[in-house]
Amino acid sequence: MPNPSNHGSLTLVGTGITMIAHLTNEAHAWISKADQTFYLVMHPLADQWIHKLNPHAESLAHFYQADLPREQVYHAMVAHIWAAVEAGKRVCVAFYGHPSVFVTPTSDLVQRGQREGVTVHVLPGISAEACLFADLALDPGLHGYQSYEASDFLLRPRRFDPTTPLVLWQIGVIGYFKVVHAGLDPRAGLARLVAHLQHFYPEQHEVIIYQAAILPIEEPTICHVQLNALAEQHVSAYATLYVPAHGEAEFDQTLAREFGLL
After folding, report:
1. Diameter over CA atoms, the chain
2. Is 184's pLDDT higher than 90?
3. Which of 6, 66, 140, 181 has the most beta carbons within 10 angstroms of its beta carbon?
4. What is residue 122's three-state secondary structure?
5. Active-site residue among 96, 176, 201, 210?
């Protein structure tokens, strides 16, 4: 039976999407003051910046080896991080974006903490979703919002509503579950996605390829294309697809009168 009194502590933070600009004061403090800080970021300048905050910080990027299944990589990361916790250290792990959004090690670490009686603190960060809401002026409170990882959207066909905006994440790696590399060709996956979406939207329906800015001097990628042209577009592994609503949702006139809206 694990003895949590012998363990250190673990706090997971997010660095946000845009380097430096999105880091919260709370995350800054944990990265700087932890006995051991691990991190995963998206740009070499972010590496340098993390090391200025904590000279002993260690990147987890070396776990990403070509052709390894991502699940194997995440398992190795979790074991490495937990070893520092078991050594009695106050550990901080800084993940790009929000630590609970598309970060498999976070859920694995939280579950391990629950099994071993160690509280794992997760602090929020600015996510790609938050950036999308701002950059595309999308308010999910107006007409709702549907969000799925693109491969999962195809593997588990959903009963989604075309009259509500749809967001699909990671459209550049559809059907690919190993370590991402620069030579990936997204066209086959995009073609599968287009074929599925065309059952619900017209071929000329305009969609948006989106990617948030990583550096403060950059602009976000916002590319408007017709659905039938999506498969031929050059997209990164981290690109997102925003599909605007097609048509209008039914409106319950009787209930609207009860609510005093009519």
Report:
1. 65
2. no
3. 140
4. strand
5. 96
pTM for the predicted model, two decimal places: 0.91
Helices within 66-205 (DSSP H only): 70-86, 104-116, 128-135, 140-143, 150-155, 187-197
The H or E element that residue 45 is part of is helix 44-53
Considering the domain 128-243 in this protein, what is its CATH number? 3.30.950.10
Residue ranges per structural domain of the chain: 9-122, 128-243
Question: Are β-strands 221-226 and 206-211 bridged in parallel, bridged antiparallel, or unpaired?
Answer: antiparallel
Catalytic residue among 39, 64, 70, 148: 70
User: Are 116 and 6 a contacting pair, CB within 8 Å?
Assistant: no
Cβ atoms 87, 8 nearer than 8 A: yes
Backbone angles phi, psi at 65, to 5 degrees: -115, 140
What three-state secondary structure class fits 121?
strand
Place of tokens 């305009």: 206
Residue 19 CA: distances (Å) to CA of 39, 97, 126, 136, 174: 13, 9, 11, 20, 26
- Report the alpha-carbon distance of residue 107 to residue 122 in Å, rounded: 10
96 as an active site residue: the answer is yes
Q: Phi and psi for 114 in degrees, rounded to 5?
A: -65, -40
Q: Is 96 helix (H, G, I), strand (E, B) or coil?
A: coil
252-262 burial, b at 16+ Cβ within 10 Å, e below that, comes to: eeeeeeeeeee
Assigned fold of 9-122 = Cobalt-precorrin-4 Transmethylase; domain 1 (3.40.1010)
Beta bridge mates, 95: 14, 40
pLDDT digits (tens, 9 = 90+) for 37-74: 999 998 899 999 999 999 999 999 999 988 889 999 99
Q: In angstroms, rounded to a whole number, what is the distance separating the alpha carbons of residues 97 and 236?
A: 17
